[in-house]
Design goal:
- It is globular, with a radius of gyration of 19 Å.
- By secondary structure, it is of the alpha/beta class.
- The protein has helices at 13-24, 42-46, 63-68, 82-94, 136-145, 169-178, 197-209, 212-215, 230-240, 257-261, 271-277, 286-301, and strands at residues 4-8, 28-33, 50-53, 71-74, 103-108, 150-157, 159-161, 183-185, 194-196, 219-222, 248-250.
């Protein structure tokens, strides 16, 4: 059955491919974008995705579409004021007129929510380290799950790769290779879980179409099972882009606080998503896919 879906961050990585997948599946999709003149958005238009120009922090710019929707997907993070903006969005959701059947809210965070914890591979029962700079996202998850007039589902994807690689870490390494440099900062032994962007988009579809009794109030981890070290992934990305020089390992700098957020193992298991959603990974891991991912990224830039 077709439903009406509203997606925030439709011009970003997760939201963009989520919108394409849901439109392909026959749903009526509208996406919030700050600027509607980006050339890459033409693909959304050709797949009949309606683009709503607005700002997440200003609910009046998209309230009508929000009210008309059956499912709301929050697939972005405002890095300027993440707490204030998400809470303004939650307030707009809570203010919507009640329905006999609750709307669904899909809230996206990620495997980087945890920080350093004494667990090798994290499932959904593990709580983040409260001292981690991104632990506030767990607080926001709880607030999203508490929305009275929505059946909320939280998705925590691993590090994303594939297709155009929009603003992904893999694309940063491709760019680094093309500039003829290779600088790795932080813990050499750390590793992360990864997910191809199309596999993530399929997970969104499964949650949109799932029965409310099976997913409302749940948190799901989404990643493949490869769990490579970051240095291994970086090397594969550099090789794919034709850079055969050595990697220069350096410590973190005070200025690079974003890199410090991710300077630990971030391995997650998706067993719950496999069992409850029937979700399966269809793509090879980032190391095996590096050459293909590079060619796709290069083509998108052209």
């Amino acid at each position: 059955m077709s439903v009406r879906v509203f997606i925030t961050g439709a011009s970003a990585y997760a939201g963009y491919y989520c919108a394409l997948r849901l439109a392909e599946a026959g749903h009526q999709v509208a996406g919030l974008v700050r600027s509607s003149d980006q050339p890459r958005l033409n693909l959304l238009r050709t797949h009949e995705v309606t683009l709503i120009r607005g700002d997440l922090s200003q609910p009046d710019s998209y309230r009508a579409e929000l009210e008309a929707s059956d499912v709301v997907i929050h697939a972005m993070l405002d890095r300027r004021k993440p707490l204030d903006v998400d809470r303004a969005f939650f307030a707009a959701l809570q203010a919507l007129p009640a329905r006999a059947s609750k709307r669904r809210f899909i809230y996206t965070t990620g495997c980087s929510i945890f920080g350093k914890v004494p667990v090798a591979v994290m499932d959904e029962s593990v709580e983040p380290n409260p001292s981690h700079p991104l632990a506030f996202r767990r607080m926001l998850e709880k607030e999203a799950l508490a929305l009275a007039n929505f059946g909320t589902v939280v998705l925590r994807p691993g590090f994303m790769f594939g297709n155009d690689g929009f603003n992904s870490i893999a694309s940063d390494w491709f760019e680094m290779a093309e500039k003829g440099e290779a600088i790795y900062r932080g813990d050499r032994e750390k590793g992360w879980s990864w997910i191809h962007i199309d596999d993530l988009a399929e997970a969104y579809r499964l949650v949109v179409e799932a029965k409310d009794s099976g997913v409302a109030g749940e948190v799901f981890h989404l990643a493949d099972d490869h769990r490579p070290r970051c240095a291994e992934v970086m090397r594969a990305c550099l090789d794919a882009a034709g850079h055969k020089g050595d990697i220069r390992f350096e410590p973190l700098t005070k200025e690079d606080f974003v890199a410090a957020w991710f300077d630990q193992n971030e391995f997650i298991t998706s067993a719950k998503a496999h069992d409850r959603l029937g979700w399966r990974v269809r793509h090879a891991g980032i190391v095996e896919s590096a050459a293909v991912a590079y060619r796709a990224w290069k083509a998108a830039r052209a």
